[in-house]
Amino acid sequence: MQNSFARYLENGESYMTKTMGMKQVKKVALFIFYAIILWLTIYRIVIQANYPYYFLVDAGADDQLMVYETSSILQGNWLSSL
Question: How far apart are CA 71 and CA 63, in angstroms?
Answer without folding.
Answer: 12
